[in-house]
Amino acid sequence: MNTYWPWWAGAIGLASVTVGHYVYFRNSFGVSGSLERILNWNREREVERADALLADFDFDAALAEFSTAELASVATQQSLTETINTRTINTPAINTPAPYAPTSQKSAQRQPAPTTSPVAAQAVFIAFVFLGGLFASLTSGNFKLRNNMGDAYAAIVTDDWKMWPMLLIGGICVGFGTRLCGGCSSGHGLNGCSRLHPISLLATSVFFGTAVVVSTVLLRIL
Amino acid sequence: MSTRRLYFGKALFGLMLGWVVTRIGFGDFGELNQMFTFGDYTFTNQSLRMFFSFAGGVGLALIVFQTVLRHPSQAPRIHRGVIPGGLLFGLGWAISGGCPAIPVIQVSSGYLPALVTIAGVLVGIRLCRTANARWFHLDRGSCSI
């Protein structure tokens, strides 16, 4: 007999993971997004390496140095500084931009943009989802190696060779659909809906509603 | 965040998610179908356990985010791929029991055919990326960062 958690324990568990992940990382999680990033491993690693090279790069200082070097051929640096500071340039009908005055203080005050977790960390996350499930099924006595999807699947969907193409087609629909709408039950459902994101509320309504309709058709009609 | 703390956190929350989802019963297709049909597939026991587990989790998290944490977050924009994507996802979820994490849970519970579902998910993700780059050109965003 299966000994699954009562509904309130499941609700507390899901909420704990959702809120805890946000408190720890200041970011939400989504399994379909993680899988997509893992599939594009090489590209993601290229981006991470490029980001690492630029992490300590002082754009302000570099831009100031470049600008000064480029304009030094037009006027002396001192006259240029005075001209820029007084915002008077004796050229007709030219709108000059505001003087760029980078300072280390200004650079230091700029808030860093949110960074993405490395793709290797996403792989660790997925791997430990598997391990967590394995430990849970082993300790609860529900683990059993089998080459079918259980009695319920056989009764509701199919119990013969058609199971294999159904699983494959279902998986393709899940993979395509989750990436097309930008998230899955964990991303849109748990994280997005709990933060009242309109896109998540819409997406969850659509995919959950569709699953209800299709499951009802499978169960009661077909 | 240090590298050690990052990977520890990912391992911890991955473990927690896998554990919780399995103990709720998402790895069992019968239980999952019960969530969508609000009943037992043998028509002997009407139960909303699965539905309330999911909805309750969302509700509890919502209460915490809206009252305690109250950190503003930037939501991705709604785009024209949301509805067709949701329709496809819901169809696939109903016939395979998969919602990318669940086939992983199914395999960890011993349902080896779920490996085929995982393969399908990966194919679907790749197809969507190609189709989006070639035809759709949608800014899909992602809930996972």
In short:
The complex is a heterodimer of chains A (222) and B (145). Chain A is mainly α.
What does this structure look like?
The complex is a heterodimer of chains A (222) and B (145). Chain A contains eleven helices and no strands. With 222 residues, chain A is mostly helical. In chain A, helix 2 crosses helix 7 and helix 10 (185-194) packs across helix 11. The radius of gyration of chain A is 28 Å and the shape is elongated. Residues 89-114 of chain A have low confidence and may be disordered. Chain B has 145 residues and is mainly α. In chain B, helix 5 (101-108) packs antiparallel against helix 6. Chain B has helices at residues 3-24, 29-37, 49-69, 82-96, 101-108, 114-136. The radius of gyration of chain B is 18 Å and the shape is globular. At the A-B interface, helix 1, helix 2, helix 7, helix 8 and helix 9 of A face helix 1, helix 2, helix 3, helix 4 and helix 5 of B.
Keywords:
A: mainly alpha; B: 145 residues; 68% helix
Q: What's the end-to-end separation of chain A, in Å? A: 28 Å
Question: For the residues shown, what is the average pLDDT of chain B?
Answer: 86
Strand content of chain B is under 5%
Mean pLDDT of chain A: 81
Number of strands of chain B: 0
Distance between the termini of chain B: 15 Å
Largest sheet features of chain B: none
Strand and helix order of chain B: HHHHHH
Order of helices and strands of chain A: HHHHHHHHHHH
What's the quaternary structure here? heterodimer
Counting helices, strands and paired strands, the structural category of chain B is mainly alpha
In which range does the helix fraction of chain A lie? 55-70%
Determine Rg of chain A (CA atoms, Å): 28 Å
How would you characterize the largest beta sheet of chain A?
none
Tally of separate helices of chain A: 11
Largest interface: A-B, 129 and 112 residues
Low-confidence stretches of chain A: 89-114
Q: Which structural category fits the helices and strands of chain A?
A: mainly alpha
Radius of gyration of chain B: 18 Å
